[in-house]
C-alpha cells in the first residue's frame, strides 16, 4: 500500500455494507492552486471545497479521462470550474464579476455563486462520448449542492463534507469526506438502514478532524466507523497539474473570427493568452494565430 501523509485520496468501504467512501486531504496542492489566482479569502475557500469534491467524485469514477465539476450562478462568483484527470491531476479556477471582486472577501461561501446550475461532466479517454448531468444549485453550501446532484441526477444517496481554510502557518489546507450508498444491495430495507447508520456516524466528523494533519486518514476513518469496521483501499496521490500547452491554446484561439484575433493583439502584434486554470501566459504573434507565414 502506498503511504502518503498529504495530498491524497483514501478510498474505503464499510464492512458488510454496500457503502463506499473517499477521504481527501490537500496541503501543498491546495495551497499552490488557491494562491495562484490572487482571490479574496471566501472565493478561495470555495475553490478549495470544489477541489476536494472534484477529487473525491472523480477518483470514485475509476476511469481514464477527465471529470469536470462546474458551477455557474448569478452571484459574485459566477463561474467555478475544477478538473480531475486520470490518476490524480487537479486544477481549478473561480471567476469573479469584476466590479464585485473586492466586496466578496467577507461573503459566506454559500451565497457566492447565487442561483444557477451545477454540471458534472465525464469525458472518457479515447471515447468521443461525453456524459453530463445538470441540476439546479440547491443547498446551503457546496457539499450540499453536490449531495443534491447525486440525489437528483443519479438517485444515489451521497453525503459530502468539505472544508477549506488557511492553517496557523498561513498555508491553505483542504479536507473532505464522501460516503455513497451503492445500488447493489437487493435487500432495500437493509440498504436503507445501513445508509442511515453510516450517515449518522459520518456526520459526527468535525471540520478540524478533516484538516488535522496529525490525524492520519486511516486513524480518522477508524475513529468514525470502528463499530462496523472499514476496509481501506490503495491511497491515490493528488497533484497540482494543468494540461494546457501552446498547441492547445493555438487550436482554441484559431477558432475565433479573424477580426477578434486581431483585436486581441497589442500594438506590436503580440497576443498574450493566459490559462484560466494555472495562470500561465502564452505569447503568440497575431500572424501565428491566423496561420500566416511570416
Ligand atoms: Zn494551464
TrEMBL record:
MF (Gene Ontology): protein folding chaperone; unfolded protein binding
Keyword annotations: Chaperone, Cytoplasm, Disulfide bond, Redox-active center, Zinc
GO CC, one annotated term: cytoplasm
InterPro entries: Heat_shock_Hsp33, Heat_shock_Hsp33_C, Heat_shock_Hsp33_N, Hsp33_helix_hairpin_bin_dom_sf
Transmembrane domains' residue ranges: none
Domain of life the protein comes from: Bacteria
Keyword Ligase: no
Keyword Disulfide bond attached: yes
Gene Ontology annotations of biological process type: protein refolding
PANTHER family given in the database record: 33 KDA CHAPERONIN
Name under which the protein is recorded: Molecular chaperone Hsp33
Organism expressing this protein natively: Minwuia thermotolerans
